[in-house]
Design a protein that fits this description.
Elements: H1 12-25, H2 38-45, H3 49-61, E1 65-68, E2 72-75, H4 85-96, E3 101-112, H5 115-121, E4 128-138, E5 146-153, H6 157-166, H7 170-178, E6 184-193, H8 196-202, E7 209-218, E8 224-233, E9 243-246, E10 250-253
Antiparallel strand pairs: 1-2, 3-4, 4-5, 5-8, 6-7, 7-8, 9-10
Helix pairs in contact: 1-3, 2-3, 6-7
């Protein structure tokens, strides 16, 4: 699959996003107030709930709004903060990656963390977390592009089900559930070897090399919100990074692209 490109300026989601951004900039919805409900925005913009949710998700990963389950979406600021903009852009890219894919949750279970898992995740021994396995597939492909193990604290279990319904990454639904923004993502890239079960799920060969990407998601207080361990077949995904020097901001990088 060729590298994904940004949506056209005239796409429904882009128009919805631009409309909401203009509303923030002109003070239609002051900081601290709630945005109109999704149903109200759908009616105002003449678009689907999925389109509105996608636009709100982009604003949320930029730190402009925070969704609270059962309450609504609250305005946090009118414009993105400039200081951490590069980090926010990179985290936003993780959400945008899901635009042209669908996700299927294979299973979810509660796990009391043993010592090796605790050491790998980086949390306290004896805690109970939820482990979900998911398959994500590009809209124009039949074979999946990634098999993921997703770990979240027990209190965030409902975010996994919400992700299955919305198609958005779990960390977005965790943010909506608790109102805590992901402010840092630690990432480790390596190689995995497909087991028989993994090969069956990914429709690749047993013992085929896989691109392995592990991520740890933290909020501003360094609270661990989620851990993911993802496996990508080598012929369906590539991770491309371009480093650039930005004056006064150090080094930033371009987003990853599925192949």
């Amino acid at each position: 699959m060729p590298p994904s490109t940004p949506p056209s300026p005239t796409s429904k989601r882009s128009l919805a996003y631009a409309h909401l951004m203009r509303g923030l900039e002109v003070g239609r919805w002051p900081v601290g107030t709630l945005l109109p409900t999704e149903a109200a925005l759908c009616a105002e913009l003449g678009v689907s709930r999925h389109t509105v949710r996608a636009a709100l998700a982009e604003m949320q990963v930029m730190g402009l709004v925070v969704g609270h389950q059962g309450v609504g979406t609250r305005v946090m600021r009118r414009k993105p903060e400039l200081a951490p903009s590069h980090s926010l852009h990179n985290i936003s890219d993780l959400a945008l990656y899901a635009r042209n894919t669908t996700v299927r949750i294979l299973d979810v279970k509660e796990v009391m963390l043993d010592e090796p898992t605790t050491e790998w995740i980086g949390t306290a021994a004896g805690e109970t977390w939820c482990l979900a396995r998911t398959l994500r597939t590009a809209v124009d492909q039949e074979a999946p592009i990634v098999l993921s193990s997703v770990w979240v604290p027990l209190a965030s279990k409902s975010a996994i089900e919400a992700s299955g319904q919305s198609g958005l990454p779990v960390f977005i639904e965790v943010q909506r559930l608790h109102g805590h923004m992901v402010s840092e993502v630690r990432q480790v890239i390596g190689i995995g070897i497909a087991t028989r079960e993994q090969a069956a799920r990914l429709r690749c060969k047993t013992r085929e090399p896989l691109l392995r990407i592990q991520r740890w998601y933290y909020d501003s207080q360094r609270t661990l919100l989620e851990v993911t361990d993802s496996l990508h077949p080598q012929d369906r995904f590539q991770y491309s990074v371009t480093l650039r020097h930005v004056s006064g901001s150090g080094i930033t990088q371009s987003p990853p692209h599925p192949e």
